[in-house]
Design goal:
Elements: E1 2-7, H1 18-34, E2 36-43, E3 47-54, H2 60-78, E4 97-100, H3 107-115, H4 119-131
Antiparallel strand pairs: 1-3, 1-4, 2-3
Amino acid sequence: MYHLVFPVKYRRKVIYGMLSEYIKAVCLEIGDRYELQFVEIGTDEDHVHFFEQSVPTMSVSNIVKTIKSITACEVFKNHPEVNKDLWGGNFWTRGFYANTVGQYGNKDMIKKYVENQGRKYKAIHTEQLRLW
């Protein structure tokens, strides 16, 4: 099991609304095709967290390459409005965060963390707007 984080190129805040749901749908199709099980997918405006499980023969770099390339192609093809914020044909940055998740101890904690991505920021942002 892995916890993966992919930032958007230039940390642009382009993942919201329908694009967030579209990325999740594409990932579920990737999971069916490549024997990846997405336990949880959490999106924020400028990055995505994945909590996924794969077959032991697939390396982390291959998992990342597969997810990044397919999601980027599909996003640019079906959501051309993203092109105005992301030029040069890249949706994701070159880097990524990857960490293994043990079956005992922190599995539920990581799942909950990924599930709640974006909610804390929106709650804080809304609260700050109320103060002003």
